[in-house]
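Table 4 source record.
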Amino acid sequence: MSRSKPKRRKHKKKHYLLKFIIVVLICAAAGFVMHLSYFNISGIAVMGNEDISDEEIIKLSGVKEGESIFHAQPLLVKYKVKDNLYIDKVKTKWKMPDKVIITVSEKTAMAQFKKGGKFVVTDIDGTVIEVTDKERKATLIDNIKVTSAKRKDVIEVKDEEQAQKALKLVAAADENDLYFKRISMSGNKVDAYIFDELVCKGKYGDLVSCIKSGTLKSVVYDLYQKDKEKGTITVSSDNYCFFTP
């Protein structure tokens, strides 16, 4: 029995050595394959984008023609491309042996606030997408003082309750196929501008209710059909609204 123990230890050592050699050979083979010119990227396609150019997305991704397709790691590409906060989702697919497809979905700017001479653009949750000199196509929220606006963070304002109510109003409008160019709030009173000279006036709760019921949408559509872009839509309780030219 005492002579058999060294044999078993020797057998185990050979077994581990064989495994190690196999792993080394696999790694060497993988490294060799990854550096074959056969797998060098010859084309990069971008899909799903509307406002953001193919060139910008490819630049953000870091994927380059001539490099190995194995360098275009999906998780890394996703992390890099989403540095642009107007991009919501990213999916990267390899089309062997030499094509990369990047599919994105874009995030819509929902609201913007003024801070000094700049516009703070946010998503529906109040997360800052960008701070820019140019006004974007998003509902402008008036009468809200911005105290801090850091990209990727939730906007900080002096009156948080009013800001949240304004964002909920924007969300309700969007869900019911309405768009307000500008919203001005004072306490519980709201002036929501559909056009520069066509405004909806009423209490916050009444306006939200009228939006969700579809009543306001019907009134706005009727005015649109009649080419009326000036006047006041007064919203009261029980989903009642009336138009004054």
